[in-house]
Amino acid sequence: MSRTLYSGNRNASSWAFRAWLALREQNIEFDEIIVDIRRPQRWKNLSEIGQFSPPAAVPVLLDGESVIYDSSAIMEYANELGAGELLPKDLVLRAQARSFVAWQHSTFSRVCPCLSFESAFYKEKKQLTANEIKTANWVYSIWEAHLTKSTGAYLFGDFSLADIALVPSVLRLKSHCPVSKEFPLTRRWVQQLLQREYVQEWLNQAYALDPIYCEGYYSS
Ligand SMILES: N[C@@H](CCC(=O)N[C@@H](CS)C(=O)NCC(=O)O)C(=O)O
């Protein structure tokens, strides 16, 4: 059966990055069509996606005749295709890993909203406000507390969907506010996460592109 992932620009589509990463980490074969979501072509291109996928957004996975949309559904699907290795075996840990994914999916973009995924690739970073620094450190303290309880190098021991969901957020926060020595486990986790082969593959392509500037970034 043939699978095609409709993804987005490497330096713009954090949602596609998560879905792509889950599929790659599970060694699932798929073709990829990168949809240009930069303005103004974004609207025409996404309306074409809307011809077969109701949200008219990327990522979308076409699996044979079946359409699977939304990054979280694609991540879960990748996990199940790969025998469930991307979620903890323990029931409670599995629920907690899904909490991380759900938080990322629902409201995590409210954390330092001006530090978009696109901004992670800007050569000249803006000066963070005191509030943004405080917020980034608050997030690091949450990750640190969680890693203290982990039995392995990742949030839930082995690499999981929780780690995958957070890669773009790790990148946008860490590229503006390095993780201090106060959070040693988070520093190590971030380093390991960003060094993973497929994360590197995506990021190398992203860094090679012209940056996509988001309005208000330097003035916020
Ligand atoms: N909840 C969706 C969000 C996807 C999303 O917002 N994708 C962006 C590109 S990164 C998009 O296609 N947006 C189109 C739109 O919002 O109209 C998911 O997780 O897949």
UniProtKB/TrEMBL annotation:
GO MF entries: glutathione transferase activity; maleylacetoacetate isomerase activity
Positions of the GST C-terminal domain: 90-212
InterPro entries hit by this protein: Glutathione-S-Trfase_C-like, Glutathione-S-Trfase_C_sf, Glutathione_S-Trfase, Glutathione_S-Trfase_N, GST_C, Thioredoxin-like_sf
Keyword Membrane listed: no
Domain GST N-terminal span(s) in chain numbering: 1-86
Keyword field: Transferase
GO biological process: glutathione metabolic process; L-phenylalanine catabolic process
Protein's name according to its UniProt entry: Glutathione S-transferase family protein
